[in-house]
Amino acid sequence: MLTVQLVKLLAVTALAEALAHGQGLVLDLPYLEDTIGFFVFSFFGYRRIYPFFLLCVLGTGRGLMSKTSLREGQMIISLPESCLLTTDTVIRSYLGAYIAKWQPPPSPLLALCTFLVSEKHAGDQSLWKPYLEILPKAYTCPVCLEPEVVNLFPKPLKAKAEEQRARVQEFFSSSRDFVSSLQPLFSEAVESIFSYSALLWAWCTVNTRAVYVEHRQRQCLSAEPNTYALAPYLDLLNHSPHVQVKAAFNEETHCYEIRTVSGCRKHEQVFICYGPHDNQRLLLEYGFISVQNPHACVHVSEDILVKYLPSTDKQMNKKISILKDHDFIENLTFGWDGPSWRLLTALKLLCLEAEEFTCWKKILLGEIISDTNEKRSLVIAQKICQYFIEETNAMLRKVSHMKDEVALINQLTLVETLWTEELKILQASAEILNRLQTPFR
Question: Which Gene3D superfamilies match (predicted)?
Fold first, then answer.
């Protein structure tokens, strides 16, 4: 068997080779010791690390690069079930007896979060220390941001961020009695160990890093979905919206497997995709934004949808009711390719004249009613787009001003990037709308 020293030497060699072929990859020295330690942890804990991977440290964080080209459908990684950190791991641990006797049963999420906080508190005594040390010390999910920063979010995201904060606060409050029962395990007061900040860190760790794996229902856990699994080695694979992968737990092999759909060239970083999420969803769930995200969009709420329509339209309430009944009042967006079909369809229905109203079903089926209706809907779309452009520019000026006054540069830069990306989308949409209106001029 390879010694720890030899594996460390292999890790250093791998890092050096990664840099040699990385075409500008930057070695972030403070991460080096933790990364090599994690490499050792991974090597001895995971028997299925494929030889065509090299561990490398990028300027933007840790990542993996391939020693060989990866074909479409080729396995990227296969992690045995025993390597996953799940509620089964927690129940087999020193926490298991306390979980088993607690009533009402704690949730799977609370069990995992409690274990993470407890293991982090154990420090050098924790077998999971190498994994815990490469996790972020703090997260940038909205619940972790200052209220004045969240107030700068686009309205749809701000509402979801407030829901997230309320959900986490409820999670913390409901954990107090169970946490108190764990006092015999610790010499320090459990209130200080399982503080709000500690449980917030654990909640964000699970929320941003857990993969979906179904587990059998345990009587000692509540009936809430038990589908969380932390897979430490996967933390080295970064997200890109431009790649496609297939990821799932294989019931036959009892491994969590990821296969590439789009392939990967030799000596390029290997990416996975968390899903076709827009930037607001990425920020809400994972705490980051993807520049030039092809799935990015700007959402149009109901109040903005009707903002430039005549208030004298007696059929407006009926039109809105039809849109709601047929699920056309939400998911209305501007994207890189202009206004979405759903947005234009909703506007076409709202722009129907009184004598055209009976044709509303044809609108929802994608039929053209009249040139007048087409022109009016495009004009309204242009006005909405221009409204968003002006609002976005105003928010960017406000963020820029706050960066000069408030010591929240990193958080404000995150919001600034979100608004900047939305501005680019709106500008692209405005150009497309201008071209679409040419035939009607």
Answer: Rubisco LSMT, substrate-binding domain (3.90.1420.10), set domain protein methyltransferase, domain 1 (3.90.1410.10)
